[in-house]
Every structure is written in structure tokens, then in C-alpha cells.
Design goal:
The chain contains 3 helices and 6 strands. Strand 1 and strand 2 form a beta hairpin.
Length: 141
Amino acid sequence: MAKEQTQMSTNDAIMLMFLDLVEQDGIEVDITLTVNGSIVSGTLIGATAYYEGVTEASKNFEDSTMSKIISKKFHDLKEEYAKQKQQEAEKESKEKENSFTFIHLKNAKYVTNQHEIAHTNGTWWRGKIASIDGFSFNSFV
């Protein structure tokens, strides 16, 4: 997984607490986010759960070659993420708020102008934490 040029995070204590809980303890929490004027609602999960979910979902692609490629790439990303997190844990020199750059949702649904963009079971969603304008801990859709 490539390192980002600019580290983007949040200093919101509540968001940091929940991000830590999903990453460290594996909890899942329904959440609704406002991101640049759009609403995204789903279940907050950790990065490892996100990578595992996308890897598993890619096995359902109709194109078996594409399915294998995507599955392998996300498996590799998950492994790299685990390695990076291990290295960060060993350093322990950075504050926690600097280690969270992205937020991950499963069963995500988008709402714009009071209309839900349909995904039967929702979709996997990953967004920059720095782009979040607001949040509530419930599922709006």
C-alpha cells in the first residue's frame, strides 16, 4: 500500500475513539456521514474488515479473470496494511490521531436530494477522514 504524500486525519475525539474501537476491538457501528454535501450511511468497520470484505465480494464478479485479479490485489493490500500497522505499533512514537487517514463502511448507501441511490445490500465504501463534515451514530437509510 502506497504511503500518502500528505497525512490527513482528524482531531475529533469522538471519531478517533470510534476509529480506535473498530480497528483495535473489531466492533461495528452504524453511522451516517456528511461528506462534501453528500450523505453516506452504513456500518463503520476497520480497514482489515474492509479489505477482507472487498476481497470476498470480488469473488462474485461475473468475469472470473477479473475476480481473481481483484481478489489477489485486495489480499495484497490487506497484507501490506497489516505489515504497516505492525510497524506503526512497534514505533509508538506517533500520536493515534495521525494514524487514521481513511474511514471504511460496509453496507454503505448514498443519499442525495432525499433520494437513496439503490444498492440492494449496500456497498463497500472508503473515504478520506479529512473530507467528513459531520456524522451521527445511526443508520439513516
